Amino acid sequence: DYLHRLEEARKRDHRLLGQELGLFTFNQTVGKGLPLWKPKGAILRDLLERFLREVQIDHGYQPVLTPHIARVRMFEISGHYPYYKDSQYAPFEVEGDLYMLKPMNCPHHIHIYSDELHSYRDLPIRFAEFGTVYRYEKSGELHGLTRVRGFTQDDAHIFCTPEQLEDEFVAVIDLVEFILNGLGLTDYRARVGIRDPESDKYVGSDENWEKAAQAIINAAHRKNLNFTVEEGEAAFYGPKLDFIIRDAVKREWQVSTVQVDYNLPQRFQLEYVGEDNERHQPIMIHRALYGSMERFVALMIEHYAGAFPAWMAPVQMVLIPIADRHLDYARDIASQLREHGFRVEVDDSQGRVGAKVRQATTQKVPWMLVVGDRDIAQSAVSVRLRTGEDLGAMHVADFITLAKTIVANKSLALA
Questions:
Q1: pTM for the full model?
Q2: In this predicted model, what pLDDT tens digit does every residue of 353-373 receive, in sequence order?
Q3: Which residues are annotated as catalytic?
Protein backbone atom coordinates (compact mmCIF):
# COMPACT_ATOMS: atom_id res chain seq x y z
CA ASP A 1 0.00 0.00 0.00
CA TYR A 2 2.84 2.38 0.86
CA LEU A 3 4.64 1.70 -2.44
CA HIS A 4 1.38 2.13 -4.34
CA ARG A 5 0.78 5.52 -2.70
CA LEU A 6 4.35 6.60 -3.51
CA GLU A 7 3.79 5.73 -7.16
CA GLU A 8 0.42 7.53 -7.15
CA ALA A 9 2.02 10.61 -5.62
CA ARG A 10 4.66 10.60 -8.36
CA LYS A 11 2.00 10.39 -11.09
CA ARG A 12 -0.02 13.16 -9.44
CA ASP A 13 2.89 15.60 -9.02
CA HIS A 14 1.32 18.97 -9.81
CA ARG A 15 4.56 20.26 -11.31
CA LEU A 16 4.52 17.56 -14.00
CA LEU A 17 0.76 17.67 -14.59
CA GLY A 18 0.85 21.46 -14.67
CA GLN A 19 3.17 21.26 -17.67
CA GLU A 20 1.41 18.33 -19.36
CA LEU A 21 -2.02 19.97 -19.05
CA GLY A 22 -0.77 23.45 -19.94
CA LEU A 23 -1.82 25.05 -16.63
CA PHE A 24 1.21 27.05 -15.50
CA THR A 25 4.92 27.51 -16.00
CA PHE A 26 7.97 29.14 -14.41
CA ASN A 27 10.63 31.14 -16.20
CA GLN A 28 14.03 32.05 -14.82
CA THR A 29 13.98 35.39 -16.64
CA VAL A 30 10.82 36.28 -14.69
CA GLY A 31 12.29 34.97 -11.45
CA LYS A 32 12.22 31.98 -9.14
CA GLY A 33 9.01 31.20 -7.29
CA LEU A 34 6.87 33.43 -9.52
CA PRO A 35 4.35 31.25 -11.42
CA LEU A 36 2.99 32.26 -14.82
CA TRP A 37 -0.58 31.08 -15.36
CA LYS A 38 -1.37 29.78 -18.84
CA PRO A 39 -4.92 30.15 -20.24
CA LYS A 40 -6.15 26.76 -18.96
CA GLY A 41 -4.63 27.32 -15.53
CA ALA A 42 -6.10 30.81 -15.37
CA ILE A 43 -9.54 29.35 -16.19
CA LEU A 44 -9.20 26.72 -13.44
CA ARG A 45 -8.13 29.33 -10.92
CA ASP A 46 -10.90 31.72 -11.97
CA LEU A 47 -13.53 28.99 -11.58
CA LEU A 48 -12.36 28.30 -8.01
CA GLU A 49 -12.34 32.03 -7.22
CA ARG A 50 -15.82 32.57 -8.66
CA PHE A 51 -17.20 29.64 -6.68
CA LEU A 52 -15.91 31.15 -3.44
CA ARG A 53 -16.86 34.74 -4.35
CA GLU A 54 -20.49 33.73 -4.90
CA VAL A 55 -20.65 31.74 -1.67
CA GLN A 56 -19.07 34.59 0.30
CA ILE A 57 -21.55 37.15 -1.00
CA ASP A 58 -24.38 34.79 -0.01
CA HIS A 59 -22.85 34.74 3.50
CA GLY A 60 -22.70 38.50 3.90
CA TYR A 61 -19.12 39.24 2.88
CA GLN A 62 -18.32 42.50 1.10
CA PRO A 63 -15.57 42.59 -1.54
CA VAL A 64 -12.68 45.03 -1.12
CA LEU A 65 -9.47 45.69 -3.07
CA THR A 66 -6.17 46.93 -1.69
CA PRO A 67 -2.78 47.91 -3.22
CA HIS A 68 0.26 45.66 -3.46
CA ILE A 69 2.53 48.05 -1.53
CA ALA A 70 2.25 50.13 1.64
CA ARG A 71 4.34 52.22 3.99
CA VAL A 72 6.64 50.25 6.24
CA ARG A 73 5.19 52.24 9.13
CA MET A 74 1.87 50.41 8.80
CA PHE A 75 3.55 47.03 9.23
CA GLU A 76 5.57 48.33 12.17
CA ILE A 77 2.33 49.24 13.91
CA SER A 78 0.81 45.84 13.14
CA GLY A 79 3.93 44.06 14.38
CA HIS A 80 4.55 42.22 11.11
CA TYR A 81 7.71 44.29 10.59
CA PRO A 82 10.32 43.57 11.81
CA TYR A 83 8.77 40.36 13.26
CA TYR A 84 8.74 38.72 9.80
CA LYS A 85 11.68 40.76 8.49
CA ASP A 86 13.59 37.73 7.18
CA SER A 87 10.67 36.62 5.01
CA GLN A 88 9.85 40.07 3.62
CA TYR A 89 11.34 41.95 0.70
CA ALA A 90 13.58 44.90 1.47
CA PRO A 91 11.83 48.26 1.83
CA PHE A 92 12.35 50.85 -0.89
CA GLU A 93 12.22 54.62 -0.76
CA VAL A 94 9.46 56.69 -2.33
CA GLU A 95 9.63 60.46 -1.90
CA GLY A 96 11.63 60.15 1.28
CA ASP A 97 9.37 57.52 2.86
CA LEU A 98 9.88 53.76 3.12
CA TYR A 99 7.48 51.38 1.36
CA MET A 100 7.42 47.61 0.98
CA LEU A 101 5.62 44.86 -0.92
CA LYS A 102 2.79 43.73 1.30
CA PRO A 103 3.35 40.36 3.01
CA MET A 104 -0.28 40.20 4.23
CA ASN A 105 -3.63 41.95 3.71
CA CYS A 106 -5.00 42.46 7.22
CA PRO A 107 -3.60 45.96 7.94
CA HIS A 108 -5.11 47.24 4.69
CA HIS A 109 -8.53 45.86 5.66
CA ILE A 110 -8.19 47.44 9.09
CA HIS A 111 -7.83 50.86 7.48
CA ILE A 112 -10.93 50.30 5.35
CA TYR A 113 -12.82 49.55 8.57
CA SER A 114 -11.40 52.59 10.38
CA ASP A 115 -12.32 54.96 7.56
CA GLU A 116 -15.81 55.23 9.13
CA LEU A 117 -17.06 55.17 12.70
CA HIS A 118 -19.30 52.13 13.08
CA SER A 119 -22.19 51.42 15.40
CA TYR A 120 -22.72 48.08 17.09
CA ARG A 121 -25.71 47.81 14.75
CA ASP A 122 -23.30 47.68 11.76
CA LEU A 123 -21.37 44.73 13.14
CA PRO A 124 -20.37 42.15 12.14
CA ILE A 125 -18.62 43.63 9.10
CA ARG A 126 -17.03 41.06 6.80
CA PHE A 127 -14.44 42.17 4.21
CA ALA A 128 -13.11 39.71 1.61
CA GLU A 129 -10.36 40.02 -0.98
CA PHE A 130 -8.34 37.78 -3.24
CA GLY A 131 -5.22 39.70 -2.25
CA THR A 132 -1.78 39.01 -3.70
CA VAL A 133 1.09 39.10 -1.17
CA TYR A 134 4.85 38.70 -1.46
CA ARG A 135 7.18 36.79 0.82
CA TYR A 136 10.84 36.01 0.43
CA GLU A 137 11.27 32.25 0.42
CA LYS A 138 14.81 30.90 0.09
CA SER A 139 15.55 29.14 -3.19
CA GLY A 140 15.86 25.75 -1.52
CA GLU A 141 12.38 26.11 -0.01
CA LEU A 142 10.61 26.82 -3.32
CA HIS A 143 8.49 23.93 -4.61
CA GLY A 144 6.14 24.24 -7.58
CA LEU A 145 2.97 26.08 -6.60
CA THR A 146 3.09 24.96 -2.98
CA ARG A 147 5.93 27.31 -1.98
CA VAL A 148 6.22 30.48 -4.06
CA ARG A 149 7.30 34.09 -3.60
CA GLY A 150 4.15 35.79 -4.84
CA PHE A 151 0.75 34.26 -4.05
CA THR A 152 -2.89 35.21 -3.70
CA GLN A 153 -4.80 34.59 -0.48
CA ASP A 154 -8.57 34.30 -0.32
CA ASP A 155 -8.35 36.63 2.63
CA ALA A 156 -11.25 37.86 4.75
CA HIS A 157 -11.50 39.79 7.99
CA ILE A 158 -14.54 39.96 10.21
CA PHE A 159 -14.98 42.79 12.72
CA CYS A 160 -17.44 41.86 15.45
CA THR A 161 -18.47 42.52 19.04
CA PRO A 162 -17.40 40.18 21.88
CA GLU A 163 -21.00 38.90 22.04
CA GLN A 164 -20.91 37.99 18.34
CA LEU A 165 -17.50 36.29 18.34
CA GLU A 166 -18.48 32.68 18.94
CA ASP A 167 -21.44 32.69 16.55
CA GLU A 168 -19.30 34.32 13.85
CA PHE A 169 -16.63 31.69 14.33
CA VAL A 170 -19.23 28.92 14.00
CA ALA A 171 -20.50 30.57 10.80
CA VAL A 172 -16.97 30.51 9.38
CA ILE A 173 -16.66 26.80 10.20
CA ASP A 174 -19.96 26.25 8.38
CA LEU A 175 -18.53 28.05 5.36
CA VAL A 176 -15.29 26.05 5.45
CA GLU A 177 -17.18 22.77 5.53
CA PHE A 178 -19.53 23.85 2.72
CA ILE A 179 -16.59 24.78 0.48
CA LEU A 180 -14.49 21.70 1.22
CA ASN A 181 -17.39 19.27 0.82
CA GLY A 182 -18.45 21.04 -2.39
CA LEU A 183 -14.98 20.47 -3.83
CA GLY A 184 -14.93 16.79 -2.90
CA LEU A 185 -12.44 17.28 -0.03
CA THR A 186 -14.37 15.37 2.59
CA ASP A 187 -11.50 13.77 4.55
CA TYR A 188 -10.19 16.37 6.98
CA ARG A 189 -9.41 17.08 10.60
CA ALA A 190 -9.10 20.30 12.61
CA ARG A 191 -6.34 21.66 14.81
CA VAL A 192 -6.66 24.38 17.44
CA GLY A 193 -3.34 26.23 17.60
CA ILE A 194 -2.54 27.91 20.92
CA ARG A 195 0.53 29.66 22.34
CA ASP A 196 3.67 27.85 23.37
CA PRO A 197 3.98 28.94 27.02
CA GLU A 198 7.78 28.78 26.77
CA SER A 199 7.98 31.22 23.83
CA ASP A 200 8.10 35.01 23.95
CA LYS A 201 7.09 35.59 20.30
CA TYR A 202 3.40 36.25 21.08
CA VAL A 203 1.85 39.66 21.68
CA GLY A 204 -1.12 40.68 23.81
CA SER A 205 -2.45 39.99 27.28
CA ASP A 206 -2.93 36.55 28.79
CA GLU A 207 -6.58 37.40 29.39
CA ASN A 208 -7.28 38.08 25.71
CA TRP A 209 -5.42 34.96 24.64
CA GLU A 210 -7.50 32.85 27.00
CA LYS A 211 -10.76 34.40 25.80
CA ALA A 212 -9.81 33.93 22.15
CA ALA A 213 -8.74 30.29 22.60
CA GLN A 214 -11.88 29.45 24.57
CA ALA A 215 -14.12 30.97 21.88
CA ILE A 216 -12.44 28.77 19.24
CA ILE A 217 -12.73 25.61 21.35
CA ASN A 218 -16.38 26.36 22.15
CA ALA A 219 -17.16 26.83 18.45
CA ALA A 220 -15.34 23.59 17.56
CA HIS A 221 -17.39 21.71 20.17
CA ARG A 222 -20.62 23.25 18.89
CA LYS A 223 -19.77 21.95 15.40
CA ASN A 224 -18.72 18.51 16.73
CA LEU A 225 -15.39 18.87 14.96
CA ASN A 226 -12.74 16.19 15.20
CA PHE A 227 -9.97 18.43 16.54
CA THR A 228 -6.78 18.47 18.58
CA VAL A 229 -5.27 21.31 20.62
CA GLU A 230 -1.60 21.91 19.83
CA GLU A 231 0.80 24.33 21.49
CA GLY A 232 2.99 26.56 19.34
CA GLU A 233 0.64 26.54 16.33
CA ALA A 234 -0.91 29.96 17.03
CA ALA A 235 -0.25 33.12 15.02
CA PHE A 236 1.84 35.70 16.89
CA TYR A 237 -1.27 37.80 17.50
CA GLY A 238 -3.83 35.12 18.35
CA PRO A 239 -4.92 31.46 18.46
CA LYS A 240 -6.38 29.78 15.39
CA LEU A 241 -8.26 26.82 13.96
CA ASP A 242 -6.67 25.05 10.97
CA PHE A 243 -8.30 22.49 8.68
CA ILE A 244 -5.99 19.74 7.46
CA ILE A 245 -7.06 17.81 4.36
CA ARG A 246 -6.14 14.25 3.45
CA ASP A 247 -6.01 13.94 -0.35
CA ALA A 248 -6.74 10.92 -2.54
CA VAL A 249 -3.42 9.28 -1.62
CA LYS A 250 -3.79 10.13 2.09
CA ARG A 251 -1.24 12.96 2.24
CA GLU A 252 -2.08 15.86 4.54
CA TRP A 253 -2.36 19.48 3.40
CA GLN A 254 -3.13 22.38 5.69
CA VAL A 255 -5.65 24.63 3.91
CA SER A 256 -8.32 26.66 5.69
CA THR A 257 -7.33 28.75 8.70
CA VAL A 258 -9.44 30.89 11.05
CA GLN A 259 -7.82 33.13 13.67
CA VAL A 260 -9.16 35.24 16.55
CA ASP A 261 -7.35 38.52 17.12
CA TYR A 262 -7.73 41.00 19.98
CA ASN A 263 -4.33 42.56 19.34
CA LEU A 264 -4.44 44.26 15.94
CA PRO A 265 -7.70 46.10 16.79
CA GLN A 266 -5.89 47.37 19.89
CA ARG A 267 -2.72 48.34 18.01
CA PHE A 268 -4.70 50.30 15.40
CA GLN A 269 -7.14 51.68 18.00
CA LEU A 270 -10.24 50.37 16.24
CA GLU A 271 -13.59 51.34 17.69
CA TYR A 272 -17.34 51.01 17.38
CA VAL A 273 -20.12 52.78 19.26
CA GLY A 274 -21.89 50.36 21.57
CA GLU A 275 -25.49 50.21 22.70
CA ASP A 276 -24.42 52.26 25.74
CA ASN A 277 -23.24 55.02 23.37
CA GLU A 278 -19.65 54.46 24.52
CA ARG A 279 -16.63 53.55 22.34
CA HIS A 280 -15.60 49.88 22.36
CA GLN A 281 -12.93 47.79 20.65
CA PRO A 282 -14.09 45.21 18.09
CA ILE A 283 -12.57 41.75 17.76
CA MET A 284 -11.11 40.56 14.45
CA ILE A 285 -11.42 37.15 12.86
CA HIS A 286 -8.82 36.47 10.16
CA ARG A 287 -10.00 33.82 7.72
CA ALA A 288 -8.71 32.10 4.57
CA LEU A 289 -10.62 29.10 3.19
CA TYR A 290 -8.33 28.05 0.33
CA GLY A 291 -5.24 29.40 2.09
CA SER A 292 -3.48 30.53 -1.06
CA MET A 293 -4.78 30.07 -4.59
CA GLU A 294 -1.45 28.69 -5.77
CA ARG A 295 -1.17 26.02 -3.10
CA PHE A 296 -4.84 25.14 -3.33
CA VAL A 297 -4.64 24.65 -7.10
CA ALA A 298 -1.66 22.34 -6.48
CA LEU A 299 -3.81 20.37 -4.03
CA MET A 300 -6.68 20.10 -6.52
CA ILE A 301 -4.33 18.96 -9.30
CA GLU A 302 -2.80 16.24 -7.12
CA HIS A 303 -6.08 15.20 -5.47
CA TYR A 304 -7.81 14.71 -8.83
CA ALA A 305 -4.64 13.76 -10.75
CA GLY A 306 -5.61 16.51 -13.19
CA ALA A 307 -8.98 14.87 -13.97
CA PHE A 308 -11.09 17.65 -12.47
CA PRO A 309 -14.86 17.49 -11.99
CA ALA A 310 -16.59 18.67 -15.16
CA TRP A 311 -17.60 22.05 -13.72
CA MET A 312 -13.94 22.79 -12.92
CA ALA A 313 -12.31 21.40 -16.07
CA PRO A 314 -10.66 24.14 -18.18
CA VAL A 315 -11.89 22.32 -21.31
CA GLN A 316 -15.11 20.41 -20.72
CA MET A 317 -15.71 18.92 -24.17
CA VAL A 318 -13.82 18.21 -27.36
CA LEU A 319 -15.67 17.73 -30.66
CA ILE A 320 -13.92 15.09 -32.79
CA PRO A 321 -15.01 14.86 -36.45
CA ILE A 322 -14.41 11.47 -38.05
CA ALA A 323 -13.56 13.03 -41.43
CA ASP A 324 -13.14 16.50 -42.87
CA ARG A 325 -16.71 16.47 -44.20
CA HIS A 326 -17.95 16.32 -40.58
CA LEU A 327 -15.98 19.40 -39.50
CA ASP A 328 -18.71 21.98 -40.19
CA TYR A 329 -21.20 19.93 -38.15
CA ALA A 330 -18.68 19.67 -35.28
CA ARG A 331 -18.17 23.44 -35.32
CA ASP A 332 -21.92 24.04 -35.36
CA ILE A 333 -22.43 21.77 -32.32
CA ALA A 334 -19.50 23.46 -30.55
CA SER A 335 -21.17 26.83 -31.15
CA GLN A 336 -24.44 25.53 -29.65
CA LEU A 337 -22.60 24.19 -26.61
CA ARG A 338 -20.78 27.50 -26.07
CA GLU A 339 -24.13 29.31 -26.11
CA HIS A 340 -25.07 27.13 -23.13
CA GLY A 341 -21.91 28.23 -21.29
CA PHE A 342 -19.71 25.18 -21.88
CA ARG A 343 -15.97 25.39 -22.56
CA VAL A 344 -15.51 23.54 -25.85
CA GLU A 345 -12.77 22.83 -28.37
CA VAL A 346 -12.93 21.28 -31.85
CA ASP A 347 -10.09 18.95 -32.81
CA ASP A 348 -9.64 19.79 -36.50
CA SER A 349 -6.15 18.30 -36.69
CA GLN A 350 -5.20 15.65 -39.22
CA GLY A 351 -5.17 12.15 -37.84
CA ARG A 352 -7.25 9.14 -36.91
CA VAL A 353 -10.18 9.31 -34.50
CA GLY A 354 -8.46 6.94 -32.07
CA ALA A 355 -5.43 9.22 -31.79
CA LYS A 356 -7.65 12.24 -31.20
CA VAL A 357 -9.55 10.42 -28.47
CA ARG A 358 -6.27 9.41 -26.82
CA GLN A 359 -5.04 12.99 -26.95
CA ALA A 360 -8.25 14.31 -25.33
CA THR A 361 -8.04 11.55 -22.71
CA THR A 362 -4.42 12.48 -21.93
CA GLN A 363 -5.58 16.08 -21.48
CA LYS A 364 -8.22 14.80 -18.98
CA VAL A 365 -11.13 16.30 -20.96
CA PRO A 366 -14.38 15.01 -19.36
CA TRP A 367 -16.42 14.48 -22.54
CA MET A 368 -15.30 13.56 -26.07
CA LEU A 369 -18.02 14.04 -28.67
CA VAL A 370 -17.29 12.09 -31.84
CA VAL A 371 -19.37 13.05 -34.90
CA GLY A 372 -19.84 11.21 -38.19
CA ASP A 373 -22.49 10.61 -40.87
CA ARG A 374 -24.97 8.86 -38.56
CA ASP A 375 -24.63 11.56 -35.91
CA ILE A 376 -25.35 14.27 -38.47
CA ALA A 377 -28.43 12.37 -39.72
CA GLN A 378 -29.77 12.04 -36.16
CA SER A 379 -28.69 15.50 -34.82
CA ALA A 380 -26.59 13.54 -32.33
CA VAL A 381 -23.12 13.17 -30.89
CA SER A 382 -21.37 9.95 -29.89
CA VAL A 383 -20.27 10.48 -26.28
CA ARG A 384 -17.12 9.02 -24.79
CA LEU A 385 -15.85 9.71 -21.29
CA ARG A 386 -12.22 10.23 -20.27
CA THR A 387 -12.65 7.09 -18.13
CA GLY A 388 -12.93 5.10 -21.36
CA GLU A 389 -16.68 4.51 -21.06
CA ASP A 390 -18.64 4.85 -24.32
CA LEU A 391 -22.16 6.24 -23.84
CA GLY A 392 -23.02 5.86 -27.52
CA ALA A 393 -25.03 8.29 -29.63
CA MET A 394 -27.09 10.93 -27.81
CA HIS A 395 -29.31 13.61 -29.28
CA VAL A 396 -27.54 16.94 -28.85
CA ALA A 397 -30.38 18.36 -26.72
CA ASP A 398 -30.25 15.31 -24.41
CA PHE A 399 -26.49 15.62 -23.98
CA ILE A 400 -26.81 19.32 -23.17
CA THR A 401 -29.40 18.51 -20.50
CA LEU A 402 -27.15 15.80 -19.01
CA ALA A 403 -24.04 18.00 -19.00
CA LYS A 404 -25.89 21.01 -17.58
CA THR A 405 -27.19 18.93 -14.68
CA ILE A 406 -23.77 17.49 -13.87
CA VAL A 407 -22.08 20.91 -14.01
CA ALA A 408 -24.80 22.71 -12.04
CA ASN A 409 -24.63 20.07 -9.27
CA LYS A 410 -20.81 20.15 -9.28
CA SER A 411 -21.02 16.39 -9.54
CA LEU A 412 -17.95 14.17 -9.54
CA ALA A 413 -19.67 11.76 -11.98
CA LEU A 414 -19.75 12.35 -15.74
CA ALA A 415 -22.90 10.40 -16.60
A1: 0.93
A2: 999 999 999 999 999 999 999
A3: 106, 135, 153, 155, 157, 240, 286
